[in-house]
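REQUEST FORM: STRUCTURE PREDICTION
Request ID: SP-0412
Submitted by: Lab K.M.
Chain count: 1
Length (residues): 536
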Amino acid sequence: MKGKTFYIFFLCCLFNLIVCAQGLKCAKNVFATPNTEFMHKLPTEKDYIVKQVVFGEGLSKLTCLYDRIDKGNKYVYVKGFSPKKEGVYSYVVVLENNGRVSYDTITLTVSSFLQSPTPMMGWLSWNWFESWADEKVLLENAQAIKDRGLLEAGYRYFILDDKWAIQGCSKENLDYDRAKFHSMEAEDGFTTQMHNLGFQVGIYSDAGKATCAYQYQAGSYGYEEEHLEKFEKWGFDMLKYDFCNNEASAQESYPPMGKAIEQLNKQRRQKGKTSFVFNICEWGQNEPWLWASEAGGSSWRATYDSRECWMGDKNIVGVLSAIDIVRDLWAYTGVNRYNDADMMMIGLHGCGSSSNYTLEHPNNAGGNLEKAFTVEQARSQMSMWSMFSSPLTICADFRKQPESKDNPQAILPEPLITEDDIYTLTNKDILSIDQDILGQCAEYISNLSTGKMEEGYDVYFKDLSYGMYAVAILNRSKDTIDNINIPLEEIYLKKNKTYIVKDVWEKQDYVFTIDNGILSTKQILPYQTKVYIIII
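STATUS: Completed
RESULT:
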């Protein structure tokens, strides 16, 4: 049903001929680049069923599929190819609830100038340097990250966090600290040097009165256009926007900056520059996955600040507590709309700054070497952040001679950044899962999982482009787990089909075949995540 039928649904709604209600539990504002694979999952509220999807003009290459309605997480989904022509398109999802018909309208924006067609990858200054971040250490770290192959791997956003401004400045006179950034506006200044190295450069502000670090500098609420004009003049390409000392609700505080960035991006596109990226750092407390895309963000924090600990809780967030939050948000993730699980702790080795503040270690001083991540814990964080299509951001000192200025009592291991760290961060297969063009978040498959707190295991399934899939099995515990068997039918695949499978973390190119309908894992080490790419 196309054309006139599509618009009849809107007219019927206007005249109350059908019931207009909210029946979907998923993103309703979605994105794609032109003529690319597209997928949108449509789980519903209890007792609602999807009867059909009515596609508007220009969406002839999309179709509604029902082959998962009785498997896994039981949903209908839209799949196909986006239009070749840029523009805003719509389709209507027709639902039924106990005989009553309702609908939800989906808006699909197709553009070759999206902020984040794939999740942002980069480095942030806060967890290691905090107030000590200055031009010298940032440029040295940028060079070190490039030398270690991380820029080539995709970590191209280099983000200056809190305490870059003159302490105590007002919103009216927001300005950078020239003792830290003396060359900011020089012809070959800080951001120009960063661009010449190949990076995009991010800056930090707050959607309130002042920033989070003891109200060190002014926030941007009410001064969005003026402050964004400065960030653009200084050469920045991205904004991390926090929510401390807020003066209004999150839904009121964020859209003004989003609108300002939208206007800026129209100018940047005309000038041939990259799109300015807007990361909303609201910590997930006001369910940003429901509104942050409409507020102009392409990613948003779903958790409080992450720490270098395994379990944690919802306030002091470890790897597992972050996973347990983000795993329920899979239907709200897609191209240009990502749930951000926060910075990864890979490379800190117990010697970060605020990352040391954990349930077991409630202060920042002296390092926390006894609680530093094992290789498997670090690799599990990388695995699950990639399965979730979270932005991948790191925060250690990557120089050959790192300094722990904000944590002077820490005795740094030598070397701080290990070969295992570099392999974890640059593994091409795991990065391909995070950067996949479908932009999907892995689904938690609860009926195949036994995990609870720090016991048992979790199973996750992720749709990838080009007819591929990813499966992750996470060992939450300190014990080895033997002999896990995953029936392919339970993860939407066919039991009588032959699949080629690649083990992502095996350093050898380890590939095997499934022809019996079962994905078998003989052994998972403590805290390990086994990740497989399945190819038709």
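NOTES: The two ends are 31 Å apart (CA to CA).
Reviewed by: T.R.
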